């Protein structure tokens, strides 16, 4: 089910619940991604982000000690524009309007409600990557 050069892309997954992280990684592999990095919070996510330079980030909102909103705020404020503008998709069970609005203010690229399906994830990734490419091209 691969396509769109997914096998060449690097994905960083931030999710504190191991069983959900494993599901997301399995779905990403089914979509066609080969290089997937996993962490359980935003602090480790920042370290891994700077180490592996991912092409896409999939991030839970609620994690400790650094959650998804703080993680997104931190990367959006980095001086390196290639990192600051990385596509980020939030994966969360939180549909609270304040959380959604804050995520939009921080320029989240997509939002997927848990539990996630293969079709949902692939559709959102396709959309986010196409929009990101269009913005980059001008």
């Amino acid at each position: 089910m691969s396509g769109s050069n997914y096998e060449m892309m690097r994905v960083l997954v931030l999710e504190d619940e191991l069983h959900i992280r494993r599901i997301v990684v399995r779905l990403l592999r089914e979509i066609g991604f080969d290089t997937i990095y996993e962490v359980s919070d935003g602090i480790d996510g920042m370290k891994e982000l700077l180490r592996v330079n991912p092409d896409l980030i999939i991030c839970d909102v609620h994690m400790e000690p650094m959650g998804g909103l703080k993680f997104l705020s931190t990367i959006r404020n980095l001086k390196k524009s290639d990192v600051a503008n990385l596509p980020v998709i939030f994966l969360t069970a939180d549909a609270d309007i304040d959380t959604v609005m804050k995520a939009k203010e921080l320029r989240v690229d997509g939002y997927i409600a848990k539990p996630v399906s293969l079709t949902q994830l692939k559709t959102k990734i396709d959309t986010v990557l196409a929009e990101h490419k269009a913005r980059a091209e001008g």
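The beta strands are 10-14, 35-39, 56-60, 88-92, 110-113. The mean pLDDT is 92.
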